[in-house]
Amino acid sequence: MLDHLKKFVEAHNSGNERLAFAMGYDCEVNGPNERNCHFSLFAKPEYTKAWEDGKKQAQTEANRQA
User: For 9-64, where are the E strands, in sequence order?
Assistant: First the structure.
C-alpha cells in the first residue's frame, strides 16, 4: 500500500497534467475519494486546471448521454 502511495505522489510531482485530468474525470464519474482528490493534484495551477478540465469533460459526456 505504501509503495502504491509513493508511486502516486511521485507521478504527481513529475508534472503529469494528464494524470490530474484523469483524476478530475474519475471524480465526476465515480465520486470524490482520496485518490482522485489528493492534495497533490492541486499543487500547481496547471494541475488544478487540468483536474477541472477533466471533471468538465466527464460532465459534458454525461450530458450528451442524457
Answer: none
